[in-house]
Amino acid sequence: MLPVPAFWMLLACVSAGSPSGVSVPLSEPRSLTEPRSTLEMAHSLTTDPASLGALSLGRPNHGALVNAAQMASSDDWEVVSPSTAWATAETIRYLERAITHTAKLHPGAHRLHIGDMSREHGGPIRPHRSHQSGRDVDLGYYYLPGSEGWYQLASERTLDRSRSWALVRAFVTETDVELILIDQRVQRMLYDEALASGEDMAWLDSIFGFRKKHPEPLIRHAYGHRTHLHVRFYNPRAQSLGSQASEALAIRGLVPATKAVGSLARKNGTRNKPAPGSREDLLARLRAAMPKNVVTRVSAAVVPPRRLPPAYPGAIAAARATLQQAPAR
């Protein structure tokens, strides 16, 4: 288990000049096809933690965030609270992709408002229960002219249903979304808009929770989400690194070790009594001063396939016609 927020303070103390709260570029340095050994991860954590990229640790409602990136406003969106606009690079890329995709389909809309994401190092953020590990974001709906603004009530009179549905659809089809929280009254408006636009009913029933047609819908009802929607993403890379880091932190003696990790730690001599004034002595004294709240160690995320809609019959017919008309090579 991983202490918060003392975890990052600890890394800052043992790193060779690595500053607390490093803002990293959105391009991650290493692919998931190159998993690090536990000892390699432990070395990186204590010498150059920024080189790892973002780590999402624990769970959304009991987590921490390392090497976060801060989302900035743009022509298509407005960040409401920069101090709580920190997340993993994956989360920010997914947000940018979905919003940009919607803006291209429906140009001329107001800038979408982005609310709370996470704090720079994760952990509890009032008034939320989640938003602790860099994978959650609150954002506004698209509204009709004259009704736009942050935290506005979505209704038949105010909601821009076509743009808001396009945004939700982009999250489902263009990103690794884990869940979307929307008040069921707004869900009904978006469902009707999607159905009227020609979407497949069976696919819609698999993603909208208010219809109760699927055991695990992506879009679920939550009280208070008529003024904004809450999106949570899978982060294949940041969650995998976070899982690897848990073992590495145990090796370094920074968190309680499992039985298997404990035996490896003893083998590498980290369980010996540290010499006064040494780095190990500093770590021991810091551990003793850590707060009692901890982050549960979790395994790497298993990202399910995206729940994509069937192709429109018209699109299939057009594709076949194009193939028939293509000149032979």
What does this entry look like structurally?
With 329 residues, this protein is an alpha+beta fold. It folds into two domains: 2-67 and 236-295, no CATH class; 69-235, Muramoyl-pentapeptide Carboxypeptidase, domain 2. The protein is 36% helix and 12% strand. The chain has helices spanning 6-14, 38-47, 89-105, 161-174, 184-196, 201-207, 236-251, 259-267, 279-288, 313-325, and strands at 2-3, 55-59, 62-66, 69-70, 77-79, 86-87, 112-114, 136-139, 177-181, 219-220, 229-233, 294-295. The strands form five sheets. Strands 8-11-9-10 form a four-stranded mixed beta sheet. Strands 1-12 form a two-stranded antiparallel sheet. A hairpin with a 2-residue loop joins strand 2 and strand 3 (62-66). Helix 3 (89-105) packs across helix 4 (161-174). The termini are far apart. Residues 1-6, 8-25, 27-33, 256-270 and 289-293 have low confidence and may be disordered.
Quick tags:
single chain, 329 residues, alpha+beta, Muramoyl-pentapeptide Carboxypeptidase, domain 2, 2 domains, four-stranded mixed β-sheet, two-stranded antiparallel sheet, 12 strands, 12% strand
Shape annotation: elongated
Please tell me how large the radius of gyration is: 23 Å
Structural class: alpha+beta
Mean pLDDT: 79
Set down the secondary structure blueprint:
Layout: E1 2-3, H1 6-14, H2 38-47, E2 55-59, E3 62-66, E4 69-70, E5 77-79, E6 86-87, H3 89-105, E7 112-114, E8 136-139, H4 161-174, E9 177-181, H5 184-196, H6 201-207, E10 219-220, E11 229-233, H7 236-251, H8 259-267, H9 279-288, E12 294-295, H10 313-325
Parallel strand pairs: 5-7, 9-10
Antiparallel strand pairs: 1-12, 2-3, 4-6, 8-11, 9-11
Helix pairs in contact: 2-7, 3-4, 4-5
